[in-house]
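Chapter review: from sequence to fold.
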Amino acid sequence: MFNFKDELAKLPHSPGVYLMHGKKDEIIYVGKAISLRNRVRSYFRESTKKSPKIEKMVSQIQRFEYIVTDSELEALVLECNLIKEYRPKYNTMLKDDKTYPFVRVTVNEDFPRILIARRMKKDGSKYYGPFTSAGAVKDTIELLQKTYKIRNCTKAITTVKDGDGEYVSVTNKRPCLNYHIGQCNAPCKGGMPKEEYAKNVAGVISFLEGDYNKTIKELETKMAAASEILDFEKAMEYRDLIASINHVAGNQKITTKNFEDRDIIAYAEEGFDAVVQVFFVRNGKLIGREHFYLKTAPGDTGADILSSFIKQYYGGTPFIPRELLLQEEIEDVELISKWLSRNQSFKVKVVCPKKGNKEKLIELARKNAEILLEKNKEKYRREQKRTVGAVAEIEDWLGLKGLSRMEAYDISHISGYETVSSMVVYEDGKPKKNNYRKFRLQWVKGADDYLSMEETLTRRFTHGLEEIEKIKQEGGDINLGSFSKLPDIIMMDGGKGQVNVALKVLEKFGLHIPVCGMVKDDNHRTRGLYFNNVEIPIDTHSEGFKLITRIQDEAHRFAIEYHRSLRSKDQVHSILDEIEGIGPARRKALMKKFKSIEAIRDASVEELQDTPAMTEAAAGKVYKFFHEE
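The token string follows.
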């Protein structure tokens, strides 16, 4: 039993992060503090005035834990990571868990490429972005490849110096279609020296850094030269490229006198929903905008919304501008500025302008947020109805409360062949696909769905309890895997029989988790729920019924796909596998050279030996296999 009085007395006067746990031992709140002792004790001191949000949160705390850090800045970094990991109920949370695309230029290669990337890596490449539209990134990459004849193949190109001291390719690969249609100069076969190609790459980088005029001038020069020699087809091609660039450059709606990078951030809220609007200004021009949906907690202020957004969004975004313009002032401005600046060569300013052009930009962003909130209000309602609302209906049918995590299972086999099972997870009415798991059954032979389900559930809860025990031994609350989080309810694809199997397994582990059967009629359509030995009829037009159907279909789909993938792997078999000493590499080499088993059978030992990866002994075994009586 957690003794609050004793544990509060042990709190250190150190900076750190504290984690509040709820009735199911889930993390319901994460916070940071300069002094853990002062901050955490304040939650439980009656004389401290608390907001309604904090009052409600404190009433649900069953225990707390803390992590000491060396500084408040370290505490802020850790707080951001833990909030993203656990998504606590009483922290303001971004609804969108997006990753925004970047343009990646592989300058570490002899002949660099332009690629789309979802995250930045320390791989020697240059990254530009993030951009709010994957479509826009693809269009930009295609434009640059056409303009500067940049390759998009994955060929490894080897270069050496020629007689003039220029690096040229000695790879001599067969050029792809882009070379034949004039969109690449085929450096893979020596069609362009490395130094000349590097000039084109420099043009790409200049463009991505916002210097459109330089690219346009280069194209205008080429267009004029093509016209001069009456190559009007080429001139029209350059003209079209110039028009495309002008279209990209012409999308800039806002410009400023200084060529600075800044993000303009404002919000609008209603109830427990909020929209944050961000304008991205780069090099003095608006290059894009994006909006983000947040789920607020009771009592959250505008400052709370903005502060939570900054921590969550900029904690996962590699590019940070020099300045953030905010609609309202937030707490810990200097600390957040220091945190944003920690990996930059400049200090990131966080300001709340009160007048002038900057204040007008904030107002414009705020109006956009209000419009989006109003526009999507009905969409929010529909989404709530089909997820959280559907779960509430199921709770009402079963007489349960607090259902969040639902797990469902299904079995797949063909006449007992290669039995597999699936586990799908829904949280608050939405699929949590990174928690899905699949099982290749080991203990059960033949087609026995009850025994197969018993094995599946036994393995699932064995893994789960082992992970929970390891967490306790580690003395922390690290997330070791999806099994460590136990379900609030188990949804079985069947009636009384399947439910009893699940209850038998749970009893063996000493677990008390509700089990509900999803009963189907003779036409394989869900007709009701089997719970506590009673079949409960349900409204087939309700959102709860639709959610149950989605869960059933998803568990079935996931099991079928896994079974199909295993069947496909088992069927990938060649007669060459029966020859001793012929593994995957040699089999692949033989098929690549001879194209068919018949050609391999008709080949001489010398021809077989002349195949990459083949030795004289291996060639002899292949020949002997096909020619021995």
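Two observations follow directly from the output. DSSP finds 21 helices and 22 strands in the chain. The chain has five domains: 4-91, 102-210, 262-375, 398-569, 575-627.
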